[in-house]
Amino acid sequence: MKKILIEGGARLFGEVHISGAKNSVLPLIAATLLTEGVSAIDESPWLSDVDCMCRVLNHLGAATHFERGTLSIDTTRIVGCEPPGELVRKMRASFLVMGPLLARTGRVCMSLPGGCAIGARPIDLHLKGFEAMGAKIDIGHGFIEAKAPRLFGSRIYLDFPSVGATENLMMAASLAEGHTVIENAALEPEIIDLSNLLSAMGAKIKGAGTNTIRIEGVSSLSPARHTVIPDRIEAGSFLVMAAATGGELIVNNVISEHLQPVTAKLQESGVFLEVGYDSIHILGNEELRPLDIKTLPYPGFPTDMQAQFMALLTVARGCSVVTETVFENRFMHAGELQKMNADIRIDGNTARINGVSHLQAATVAATDLRAGAAMVIAAQMARGTSVITEIQHIERGYENFCQKLEKIGTRIKVLDI
Ligand code: EPZ
Asked: Do 273 and 184 share a structural domain?
Protein backbone atom coordinates (compact mmCIF):
# COMPACT_ATOMS: atom_id res chain seq x y z
CA MET A 1 0.00 0.00 0.00
CA LYS A 2 1.48 3.35 -0.99
CA LYS A 3 1.75 6.23 1.47
CA ILE A 4 3.27 9.66 1.22
CA LEU A 5 5.29 11.46 3.88
CA ILE A 6 5.25 15.25 3.81
CA GLU A 7 7.38 17.46 6.06
CA GLY A 8 5.45 20.67 6.58
CA GLY A 9 6.72 24.25 6.63
CA ALA A 10 8.14 24.64 3.11
CA ARG A 11 6.96 27.71 1.21
CA LEU A 12 6.13 26.51 -2.32
CA PHE A 13 7.86 28.30 -5.15
CA GLY A 14 8.07 27.91 -8.92
CA GLU A 15 5.84 26.92 -11.82
CA VAL A 16 3.41 24.07 -12.32
CA HIS A 17 1.87 22.93 -15.62
CA ILE A 18 -1.75 21.82 -15.33
CA SER A 19 -2.77 18.56 -17.04
CA GLY A 20 -5.88 17.83 -19.07
CA ALA A 21 -9.14 17.65 -17.14
CA LYS A 22 -10.06 14.27 -15.64
CA ASN A 23 -13.76 15.19 -15.58
CA SER A 24 -13.63 16.05 -19.26
CA VAL A 25 -11.46 13.27 -20.69
CA LEU A 26 -13.66 10.55 -19.14
CA PRO A 27 -16.88 11.54 -21.01
CA LEU A 28 -14.78 12.27 -24.13
CA ILE A 29 -13.52 8.67 -24.09
CA ALA A 30 -17.09 7.38 -23.68
CA ALA A 31 -18.25 9.54 -26.61
CA THR A 32 -15.92 7.75 -29.04
CA LEU A 33 -18.22 4.72 -28.75
CA LEU A 34 -20.77 6.66 -30.82
CA THR A 35 -18.74 6.16 -33.98
CA GLU A 36 -16.65 3.57 -35.83
CA GLY A 37 -12.99 4.31 -36.53
CA VAL A 38 -10.05 5.92 -34.74
CA SER A 39 -10.54 9.06 -32.64
CA ALA A 40 -7.79 10.89 -30.75
CA ILE A 41 -7.77 13.01 -27.62
CA ASP A 42 -4.73 15.29 -27.27
CA GLU A 43 -3.30 16.58 -23.95
CA SER A 44 -5.05 13.72 -22.18
CA PRO A 45 -3.83 13.12 -18.63
CA TRP A 46 -2.68 9.59 -17.77
CA LEU A 47 -4.60 8.76 -14.56
CA SER A 48 -5.87 5.57 -12.97
CA ASP A 49 -9.41 6.68 -13.86
CA VAL A 50 -8.39 7.13 -17.51
CA ASP A 51 -6.80 3.66 -17.46
CA CYS A 52 -10.02 2.28 -15.96
CA MET A 53 -12.21 3.90 -18.64
CA CYS A 54 -9.88 2.56 -21.35
CA ARG A 55 -10.23 -0.93 -19.88
CA VAL A 56 -14.01 -0.59 -20.00
CA LEU A 57 -13.78 0.23 -23.71
CA ASN A 58 -11.25 -2.57 -24.30
CA HIS A 59 -13.74 -5.01 -22.73
CA LEU A 60 -16.32 -3.79 -25.27
CA GLY A 61 -13.95 -4.39 -28.20
CA ALA A 62 -12.31 -0.99 -28.64
CA ALA A 63 -8.52 -0.65 -28.93
CA THR A 64 -6.85 2.16 -26.97
CA HIS A 65 -3.30 3.51 -27.09
CA PHE A 66 -1.73 6.29 -25.01
CA GLU A 67 1.49 7.95 -26.14
CA ARG A 68 2.98 11.35 -25.29
CA GLY A 69 -0.30 12.82 -24.08
CA THR A 70 -2.40 11.56 -26.98
CA LEU A 71 -5.03 8.88 -26.36
CA SER A 72 -6.06 7.06 -29.57
CA ILE A 73 -9.26 5.04 -29.49
CA ASP A 74 -10.31 2.63 -32.25
CA THR A 75 -14.01 1.82 -31.90
CA THR A 76 -14.39 0.03 -35.22
CA ARG A 77 -15.23 -3.28 -33.55
CA ILE A 78 -17.66 -2.91 -30.67
CA VAL A 79 -18.53 -6.51 -29.84
CA GLY A 80 -20.42 -6.15 -26.60
CA CYS A 81 -22.88 -4.05 -24.71
CA GLU A 82 -22.11 -5.33 -21.22
CA PRO A 83 -19.41 -3.21 -19.55
CA PRO A 84 -17.45 -5.19 -16.90
CA GLY A 85 -19.17 -5.02 -13.52
CA GLU A 86 -16.04 -4.75 -11.40
CA LEU A 87 -14.87 -1.67 -13.33
CA VAL A 88 -18.32 0.00 -13.26
CA ARG A 89 -18.52 -0.49 -9.50
CA LYS A 90 -14.94 0.77 -9.10
CA MET A 91 -15.42 3.97 -11.05
CA ARG A 92 -18.80 5.68 -11.28
CA ALA A 93 -17.85 7.60 -14.42
CA SER A 94 -17.88 4.32 -16.38
CA PHE A 95 -21.66 4.73 -16.29
CA LEU A 96 -21.11 7.38 -18.97
CA VAL A 97 -20.80 4.59 -21.56
CA MET A 98 -24.52 3.84 -21.17
CA GLY A 99 -25.75 6.64 -23.43
CA PRO A 100 -23.31 6.01 -26.29
CA LEU A 101 -23.75 2.21 -26.13
CA LEU A 102 -27.53 2.47 -26.08
CA ALA A 103 -27.45 4.79 -29.09
CA ARG A 104 -24.97 2.61 -31.00
CA THR A 105 -26.11 -0.97 -30.18
CA GLY A 106 -29.70 -0.57 -28.94
CA ARG A 107 -28.99 -2.50 -25.71
CA VAL A 108 -26.83 -2.04 -22.61
CA CYS A 109 -26.62 -4.27 -19.57
CA MET A 110 -24.37 -3.11 -16.75
CA SER A 111 -23.86 -3.16 -13.03
CA LEU A 112 -25.42 -0.28 -11.14
CA PRO A 113 -22.56 2.14 -10.39
CA GLY A 114 -23.35 2.22 -6.70
CA GLY A 115 -22.54 4.96 -4.26
CA CYS A 116 -19.16 6.07 -3.05
CA ALA A 117 -17.63 7.83 -0.07
CA ILE A 118 -19.25 11.18 -0.82
CA GLY A 119 -22.80 10.06 -1.36
CA ALA A 120 -25.39 7.66 -2.76
CA ARG A 121 -24.74 8.97 -6.29
CA PRO A 122 -28.12 7.89 -7.76
CA ILE A 123 -28.69 7.65 -11.53
CA ASP A 124 -32.43 8.39 -11.64
CA LEU A 125 -31.99 11.48 -13.82
CA HIS A 126 -29.96 9.53 -16.38
CA LEU A 127 -32.66 6.82 -16.54
CA LYS A 128 -35.52 9.35 -16.72
CA GLY A 129 -33.89 10.81 -19.81
CA PHE A 130 -33.24 7.46 -21.49
CA GLU A 131 -36.88 6.44 -20.89
CA ALA A 132 -38.07 9.75 -22.33
CA MET A 133 -36.10 8.85 -25.48
CA GLY A 134 -37.88 5.51 -25.72
CA ALA A 135 -35.61 3.13 -23.83
CA LYS A 136 -37.07 0.29 -21.79
CA ILE A 137 -35.25 0.06 -18.45
CA ASP A 138 -35.15 -3.01 -16.21
CA ILE A 139 -33.32 -3.05 -12.88
CA GLY A 140 -32.70 -6.13 -10.77
CA HIS A 141 -30.01 -7.99 -8.80
CA GLY A 142 -27.70 -4.96 -8.91
CA PHE A 143 -27.84 -4.74 -12.69
CA ILE A 144 -29.56 -2.42 -15.09
CA GLU A 145 -30.63 -3.25 -18.63
CA ALA A 146 -31.69 -0.61 -21.14
CA LYS A 147 -33.11 -1.52 -24.55
CA ALA A 148 -34.08 0.76 -27.41
CA PRO A 149 -34.07 -0.41 -31.04
CA ARG A 150 -34.19 3.28 -31.84
CA LEU A 151 -33.94 6.36 -29.62
CA PHE A 152 -36.28 9.26 -30.30
CA GLY A 153 -35.72 12.92 -29.54
CA SER A 154 -37.56 14.20 -26.48
CA ARG A 155 -37.93 17.14 -24.13
CA ILE A 156 -36.14 16.27 -20.86
CA TYR A 157 -36.17 18.39 -17.70
CA LEU A 158 -33.41 17.57 -15.18
CA ASP A 159 -34.65 18.02 -11.62
CA PHE A 160 -31.01 18.78 -10.70
CA PRO A 161 -28.38 20.06 -13.20
CA SER A 162 -26.52 16.78 -13.04
CA VAL A 163 -23.18 16.83 -14.89
CA GLY A 164 -23.20 13.10 -15.68
CA ALA A 165 -26.85 12.99 -16.70
CA THR A 166 -26.37 15.98 -19.02
CA GLU A 167 -23.35 14.26 -20.62
CA ASN A 168 -25.01 10.82 -20.94
CA LEU A 169 -28.15 12.29 -22.48
CA MET A 170 -26.26 14.60 -24.86
CA MET A 171 -24.37 11.60 -26.21
CA ALA A 172 -27.50 9.43 -26.58
CA ALA A 173 -29.48 12.26 -28.20
CA SER A 174 -26.75 12.84 -30.80
CA LEU A 175 -27.85 9.65 -32.61
CA ALA A 176 -31.55 9.74 -31.67
CA GLU A 177 -34.21 10.31 -34.33
CA GLY A 178 -35.44 13.88 -34.06
CA HIS A 179 -34.99 16.82 -31.73
CA THR A 180 -34.01 16.61 -28.05
CA VAL A 181 -34.12 19.48 -25.57
CA ILE A 182 -32.36 19.07 -22.22
CA GLU A 183 -33.67 21.65 -19.76
CA ASN A 184 -31.96 22.62 -16.50
CA ALA A 185 -28.80 21.13 -18.01
CA ALA A 186 -25.45 21.38 -16.20
CA LEU A 187 -23.32 24.38 -17.19
CA GLU A 188 -19.88 23.01 -16.29
CA PRO A 189 -16.97 23.67 -18.74
CA GLU A 190 -16.67 19.91 -19.23
CA ILE A 191 -20.15 19.93 -20.84
CA ILE A 192 -18.95 22.45 -23.44
CA ASP A 193 -15.79 20.39 -24.04
CA LEU A 194 -17.90 17.27 -24.69
CA SER A 195 -20.21 19.25 -26.97
CA ASN A 196 -17.18 20.43 -28.95
CA LEU A 197 -16.00 16.85 -29.52
CA LEU A 198 -19.50 15.67 -30.46
CA SER A 199 -19.84 18.57 -32.92
CA ALA A 200 -16.46 17.68 -34.45
CA MET A 201 -17.86 14.16 -34.89
CA GLY A 202 -20.83 15.61 -36.79
CA ALA A 203 -23.41 16.01 -34.04
CA LYS A 204 -25.80 18.96 -34.19
CA ILE A 205 -25.78 20.52 -30.72
CA LYS A 206 -26.65 24.05 -29.62
CA GLY A 207 -26.63 25.63 -26.18
CA ALA A 208 -23.95 23.67 -24.32
CA GLY A 209 -22.90 25.87 -21.41
CA THR A 210 -26.43 27.20 -20.99
CA ASN A 211 -29.23 25.52 -19.08
CA THR A 212 -31.03 24.52 -22.29
CA ILE A 213 -29.24 22.25 -24.75
CA ARG A 214 -30.84 21.43 -28.12
CA ILE A 215 -29.71 18.40 -30.11
CA GLU A 216 -30.84 17.42 -33.62
CA GLY A 217 -30.14 13.69 -33.94
CA VAL A 218 -28.12 12.49 -36.96
CA SER A 219 -27.93 9.02 -38.51
CA SER A 220 -24.21 8.54 -37.93
CA LEU A 221 -21.10 10.24 -36.53
CA SER A 222 -17.45 10.18 -37.62
CA PRO A 223 -14.22 9.82 -35.63
CA ALA A 224 -12.57 13.09 -34.62
CA ARG A 225 -9.50 14.57 -32.96
CA HIS A 226 -9.90 16.86 -29.95
CA THR A 227 -7.75 18.56 -27.31
CA VAL A 228 -9.11 18.23 -23.78
CA ILE A 229 -9.45 21.38 -21.66
CA PRO A 230 -7.10 21.90 -18.69
CA ASP A 231 -8.16 20.60 -15.28
CA ARG A 232 -9.68 23.52 -13.34
CA ILE A 233 -9.75 21.49 -10.11
CA GLU A 234 -6.08 20.50 -10.32
CA ALA A 235 -5.28 24.17 -10.97
CA GLY A 236 -7.40 25.28 -8.02
CA SER A 237 -5.71 22.71 -5.78
CA PHE A 238 -2.24 24.10 -6.58
CA LEU A 239 -3.44 27.68 -6.04
CA VAL A 240 -4.68 26.71 -2.58
CA MET A 241 -1.31 25.08 -1.82
CA ALA A 242 0.46 28.36 -2.56
CA ALA A 243 -1.98 30.26 -0.35
CA ALA A 244 -1.62 27.67 2.43
CA THR A 245 2.19 27.78 2.53
CA GLY A 246 2.64 31.53 1.94
CA GLY A 247 4.46 30.60 -1.23
CA GLU A 248 4.59 31.99 -4.76
CA LEU A 249 3.48 29.93 -7.77
CA ILE A 250 2.84 30.44 -11.45
CA VAL A 251 0.15 27.98 -12.50
CA ASN A 252 0.37 27.45 -16.27
CA ASN A 253 -2.06 25.97 -18.81
CA VAL A 254 -5.33 27.13 -17.27
CA ILE A 255 -8.54 28.65 -18.66
CA SER A 256 -8.86 31.40 -16.07
CA GLU A 257 -12.58 31.94 -16.49
CA HIS A 258 -13.16 28.34 -15.38
CA LEU A 259 -11.55 29.28 -12.06
CA GLN A 260 -13.51 32.45 -11.30
CA PRO A 261 -15.23 31.17 -8.11
CA VAL A 262 -11.89 29.84 -6.84
CA THR A 263 -9.78 32.93 -7.59
CA ALA A 264 -12.54 35.18 -6.21
CA LYS A 265 -12.52 33.33 -2.88
CA LEU A 266 -8.71 33.31 -2.71
CA GLN A 267 -8.63 37.07 -3.28
CA GLU A 268 -11.29 37.46 -0.56
CA SER A 269 -8.98 35.54 1.81
CA GLY A 270 -6.26 38.12 1.19
CA VAL A 271 -3.80 36.48 -1.20
CA PHE A 272 -2.37 38.34 -4.20
CA LEU A 273 -3.42 36.95 -7.60
CA GLU A 274 -2.42 38.07 -11.08
CA VAL A 275 -4.92 36.33 -13.38
CA GLY A 276 -3.76 36.01 -16.99
CA TYR A 277 -5.61 34.35 -19.88
CA ASP A 278 -3.88 30.97 -19.57
CA SER A 279 -1.81 31.30 -16.38
CA ILE A 280 -2.26 32.56 -12.84
CA HIS A 281 0.44 34.06 -10.60
CA ILE A 282 -0.30 33.71 -6.87
CA LEU A 283 1.50 35.15 -3.84
CA GLY A 284 0.36 33.73 -0.52
CA ASN A 285 0.62 35.69 2.73
CA GLU A 286 0.68 34.91 6.43
CA GLU A 287 -2.64 36.57 7.32
CA LEU A 288 -5.48 34.55 5.77
CA ARG A 289 -8.92 36.03 6.26
CA PRO A 290 -11.80 33.62 7.11
CA LEU A 291 -14.35 32.87 4.37
CA ASP A 292 -17.95 31.80 3.96
CA ILE A 293 -18.21 29.21 1.17
CA LYS A 294 -21.28 27.52 -0.27
CA THR A 295 -20.81 24.87 -2.96
CA LEU A 296 -23.15 25.09 -5.96
CA PRO A 297 -23.40 23.78 -9.52
CA TYR A 298 -21.26 25.77 -11.99
CA PRO A 299 -20.71 28.72 -12.14
CA GLY A 300 -21.06 28.56 -8.35
CA PHE A 301 -18.23 27.49 -6.08
CA PRO A 302 -17.23 23.93 -7.11
CA THR A 303 -17.87 21.09 -4.68
CA ASP A 304 -14.61 19.54 -5.91
CA MET A 305 -12.71 22.43 -4.28
CA GLN A 306 -14.53 22.30 -0.92
CA ALA A 307 -12.12 19.96 0.88
CA GLN A 308 -9.05 21.89 -0.25
CA PHE A 309 -10.48 25.18 1.02
CA MET A 310 -11.50 23.59 4.32
CA ALA A 311 -7.87 22.61 4.84
CA LEU A 312 -6.76 26.17 4.06
CA LEU A 313 -9.30 27.75 6.40
CA THR A 314 -8.12 25.72 9.42
CA VAL A 315 -5.45 28.40 9.96
CA ALA A 316 -7.39 31.50 8.85
CA ARG A 317 -7.69 34.37 11.33
CA GLY A 318 -11.25 33.77 12.50
CA CYS A 319 -14.34 31.60 11.95
CA SER A 320 -15.22 30.32 8.47
CA VAL A 321 -18.42 28.59 7.38
CA VAL A 322 -18.46 25.98 4.59
CA THR A 323 -21.81 24.70 3.31
CA GLU A 324 -21.91 21.67 1.00
CA THR A 325 -25.09 21.63 -1.10
CA VAL A 326 -24.15 19.23 -3.95
CA PHE A 327 -23.29 15.96 -2.15
CA GLU A 328 -24.79 14.66 1.07
CA ASN A 329 -21.65 13.27 2.68
CA ARG A 330 -18.65 15.27 1.60
CA PHE A 331 -17.16 16.27 4.96
CA MET A 332 -15.17 13.14 5.80
CA HIS A 333 -11.93 15.07 5.44
CA ALA A 334 -13.00 17.15 8.48
CA GLY A 335 -12.32 14.22 10.79
CA GLU A 336 -8.86 13.77 9.31
CA LEU A 337 -8.11 17.49 9.68
CA GLN A 338 -9.20 17.34 13.32
CA LYS A 339 -6.44 14.75 13.88
CA MET A 340 -4.07 17.58 12.89
CA ASN A 341 -5.39 20.00 15.53
CA ALA A 342 -8.01 21.66 13.31
CA ASP A 343 -11.04 23.13 15.12
CA ILE A 344 -14.03 22.10 12.97
CA ARG A 345 -17.63 21.56 13.97
CA ILE A 346 -20.00 19.79 11.57
CA ASP A 347 -23.73 20.53 11.70
CA GLY A 348 -25.53 18.71 8.89
CA ASN A 349 -24.24 20.11 5.60
CA THR A 350 -22.48 23.00 7.31
CA ALA A 351 -18.95 23.05 8.73
CA ARG A 352 -17.76 25.79 11.10
CA ILE A 353 -13.99 26.19 11.10
CA ASN A 354 -12.28 28.22 13.84
CA GLY A 355 -8.79 29.12 12.70
CA VAL A 356 -5.96 27.80 14.89
CA SER A 357 -2.36 29.04 15.08
CA HIS A 358 -0.98 25.96 13.34
CA LEU A 359 -1.73 22.37 12.37
CA GLN A 360 0.15 19.47 13.90
CA ALA A 361 1.51 16.67 11.69
CA ALA A 362 -0.37 13.35 11.96
CA THR A 363 -1.14 10.13 10.10
CA VAL A 364 -4.26 10.80 8.02
CA ALA A 365 -6.18 9.03 5.23
CA ALA A 366 -7.28 10.27 1.84
CA THR A 367 -10.97 9.44 2.17
CA ASP A 368 -11.70 10.40 -1.46
CA LEU A 369 -9.93 12.07 -4.35
CA ARG A 370 -10.34 15.71 -3.32
CA ALA A 371 -10.02 14.92 0.39
CA GLY A 372 -6.63 13.47 -0.54
CA ALA A 373 -5.60 16.82 -2.02
CA ALA A 374 -6.83 18.48 1.18
CA MET A 375 -4.61 16.17 3.27
CA VAL A 376 -1.61 17.17 1.15
CA ILE A 377 -2.41 20.86 1.71
CA ALA A 378 -2.80 20.34 5.46
CA ALA A 379 0.46 18.37 5.63
CA GLN A 380 2.30 21.13 3.73
CA MET A 381 1.14 23.58 6.44
CA ALA A 382 1.57 21.39 9.52
CA ARG A 383 4.48 21.38 11.96
CA GLY A 384 6.29 18.07 11.60
CA THR A 385 6.05 15.19 9.14
CA SER A 386 2.63 13.80 8.23
CA VAL A 387 1.82 10.41 6.73
CA ILE A 388 -1.01 10.23 4.17
CA THR A 389 -2.48 6.79 3.50
CA GLU A 390 -4.98 5.56 0.84
CA ILE A 391 -3.22 7.71 -1.76
CA GLN A 392 -4.65 5.58 -4.58
CA HIS A 393 -7.55 8.01 -4.38
CA ILE A 394 -5.24 10.92 -5.22
CA GLU A 395 -3.72 9.07 -8.19
CA ARG A 396 -7.21 8.89 -9.73
CA GLY A 397 -7.27 12.60 -10.52
CA TYR A 398 -3.83 14.22 -10.25
CA GLU A 399 -1.31 13.34 -12.97
CA ASN A 400 2.35 13.03 -11.85
CA PHE A 401 1.22 14.52 -8.55
CA CYS A 402 4.24 13.73 -6.39
CA GLN A 403 6.67 14.89 -9.09
CA LYS A 404 4.78 18.18 -9.47
CA LEU A 405 4.75 18.68 -5.68
CA GLU A 406 8.47 17.99 -5.35
CA LYS A 407 9.32 20.37 -8.21
CA ILE A 408 7.69 23.31 -6.40
CA GLY A 409 9.41 22.56 -3.10
CA THR A 410 7.21 20.14 -1.15
CA ARG A 411 9.36 17.95 1.09
CA ILE A 412 7.73 14.65 0.06
CA LYS A 413 8.64 10.98 0.14
CA VAL A 414 6.60 8.13 -1.35
CA LEU A 415 6.60 4.86 0.60
CA ASP A 416 5.49 1.76 -1.27
CA ILE A 417 5.19 -0.89 1.46
C1 EPZ B 1 -19.35 14.93 -11.72
O2 EPZ B 1 -19.93 13.84 -11.02
C3 EPZ B 1 -17.87 14.89 -11.39
N4 EPZ B 1 -17.29 13.62 -11.86
C5 EPZ B 1 -17.66 15.03 -9.89
O6 EPZ B 1 -16.25 15.08 -9.65
C7 EPZ B 1 -18.27 16.36 -9.45
O8 EPZ B 1 -18.15 16.49 -8.05
C9 EPZ B 1 -19.76 16.39 -9.85
O10 EPZ B 1 -19.89 16.18 -11.28
C11 EPZ B 1 -20.40 17.72 -9.51
O12 EPZ B 1 -19.73 18.76 -10.13
C13 EPZ B 1 -17.03 13.47 -13.18
O14 EPZ B 1 -17.27 14.35 -13.99
C15 EPZ B 1 -16.42 12.16 -13.59
P16 EPZ B 1 -23.73 15.01 -10.67
P17 EPZ B 1 -21.47 13.42 -11.32
O18 EPZ B 1 -24.48 14.01 -11.46
O19 EPZ B 1 -21.76 13.59 -12.75
C20 EPZ B 1 -27.28 14.05 -7.72
C21 EPZ B 1 -14.24 14.52 -8.58
O22 EPZ B 1 -13.81 14.65 -7.43
N23 EPZ B 1 -27.80 13.20 -8.80
O24 EPZ B 1 -23.70 16.44 -11.12
O25 EPZ B 1 -21.70 12.09 -10.70
C26 EPZ B 1 -26.04 13.42 -7.08
O27 EPZ B 1 -26.40 12.49 -6.09
C28 EPZ B 1 -15.65 14.06 -8.81
O29 EPZ B 1 -13.57 14.77 -9.62
C30 EPZ B 1 -29.07 12.64 -8.67
O31 EPZ B 1 -29.74 12.85 -7.66
O32 EPZ B 1 -22.23 14.53 -10.48
C33 EPZ B 1 -25.33 14.61 -6.47
O34 EPZ B 1 -25.90 14.89 -5.22
C35 EPZ B 1 -16.40 13.82 -7.52
N36 EPZ B 1 -29.55 11.84 -9.66
C37 EPZ B 1 -25.67 15.74 -7.46
O38 EPZ B 1 -26.79 15.28 -8.24
C39 EPZ B 1 -28.83 11.58 -10.80
O40 EPZ B 1 -29.33 10.85 -11.69
C41 EPZ B 1 -24.53 16.07 -8.41
O42 EPZ B 1 -24.25 14.92 -9.15
C43 EPZ B 1 -27.54 12.15 -10.92
C44 EPZ B 1 -27.05 12.96 -9.92
From this structure: no
For the CA of 298, the nearest atom of ligand 1: 12
- In 178-197, which positions are buried (b, 16+ CB within 10 angstroms) versus exposed (e)? eebbbebbbbbbbbbbbbbb
Question: Is residue 52 flagged as an active site residue?
Answer: no
112, 151, 331, 334, 376 from 347: Cα distances, Å: 31, 45, 10, 12, 25
- What residue numbers bound the domain in which 378 lies? 2-18+230-416
Q: Are residues 303 and 266 in the same domain?
A: yes
What CATH number should be reported for the domain holding residue 135?
3.65.10.10
Are 42 and 174 in a shared domain? yes
Is 394:370 a contact under the CB 8 Å cutoff?
A: no
Q: If you take atom 4 of ligand 1, which residue's CA is the nearest one?
A: 23
212 and 360 share a domain? Answer: no
Question: Tens-digit pLDDT profile for the chain (417 aa)?
Answer: 789 999 999 999 999 999 999 999 999 999 999 999 999 999 999 999 999 999 999 999 999 999 999 999 999 998 877 888 888 888 999 999 999 999 999 999 999 886 677 777 789 999 999 999 999 999 988 899 999 999 999 999 999 999 999 999 999 999 999 999 999 999 999 999 999 999 999 999 999 999 999 999 999 999 999 999 999 999 999 999 999 999 999 999 999 999 999 999 999 999 999 999 999 999 988 789 999 999 999 999 999 999 999 999 999 999 999 999 999 989 999 999 999 999 999 999 999 999 999 999 999 999 999 999 999 999 999 999 999 999 999 999 999 999 999 999 999 999 987
Cα torsion through 354, 355, 360, 362, rounded to 10: 50
Q: What residue ranges line ligand 1, CB within 6 angstroms?
A: 22-23, 26, 92-93, 119, 121-126, 160, 162-165, 303-304, 326-327, 369-370, 397
β-pair type (350-354, 319-323): antiparallel
- Are residue 143 and residue 44 in the same domain, yes or no? yes
